[in-house]
Amino acid sequence: MGLTITPHEPENLLKRYRREVRAAASSWVGRGELAGRNNRGPGIDEMLAVSGVGRRDREGHSVGGPWCGVGTSAMLTLGARAMAWIAPPFPLHAGAKRLGRNAGEFGRFVVAPRGWTILGGGTYRGDPGIDESALIVVWHRGLTRETAWSGHVEIVSHYEPETDSLFTFAPNVVPGRAARGLHGLTIAPGQAVWHQREHSKGRWRRKLYAIAAV
Question: Considering the entire predicted model, what is its pTM?
Answer without folding.
Answer: 0.88
